[in-house]
Amino acid sequence: MRRSLLSFLPFCLALLGATGGAARAEPVKVLTTGAFKQVVLGLAPAFEAGTGHTLTVVNDTAGGVAKRVAAGEDFDVLVLTPAALQPLAQEGKLVAGSVTPLARVGIGVAVKAGTPKPAIGTVDEFRHALLDVRRIAYIDPASGGSSGIYLDGLFQRLGVADAVRAKAVLVPGGLVADKLVSGEADLALHQVSEILPVDGVDLVGLLPEAIQNYTRYAGAVGARSGHPAAAADFLKRLASPQGLQVIRTKGMLPP
What we know:
The chain is α/β, with parallel strands linked by helices. It has 11 helices and 10 strands. Strand 1 (27-33), helix 2 and strand 2 form a beta-alpha-beta unit.
């Protein structure tokens, strides 16, 4: 019996070691808007390798993220617009004082790789580009995506709302530029950070500055986070010089 117990001891120790390691590797859930997702993914490997924590990334449109939080979805780190974070902070859903400005991003114009790029340097050129193409893809405003909501109003101000809606390919969420690759659209309008990850498309450029709209993003730690220290660590990394470097490579700008 003694020999049996001794032979079983290494297995027990190994099991305890594995269990202890798993307990230390806390899973950190980041709930983010789609536009900021690429930044989170860009920092994930270094965070996981340096801390031993694992990162779970869940994304949606800005409106979708706000609805998830309102419905009670748990998260450790939340990335959303400052305006959307403010009421959540007031409701006690965020750790007090944890809201941190992170980045801003503009709306870009894209076409399928290898196809002619329209002139969009002026407001009038951009307006003609909208009228000249067959199909235009952008985020469905009804989904709560910030770029789609802004563009819907912009088309009205430019006097092309009816023409654009007749040829619109409305995307409920995700990467609008995918519609260029599939051939469903000839022009895609989306935040630059969501155009760059799509293979097979070319970024024509940003909207003219006179009609550009920058969406700002901030992060915060959830008040019900099961791993507040790990969550605060990741949020700090997002706002660090290393995080800023990733933000720039993903087509975004400092806050």
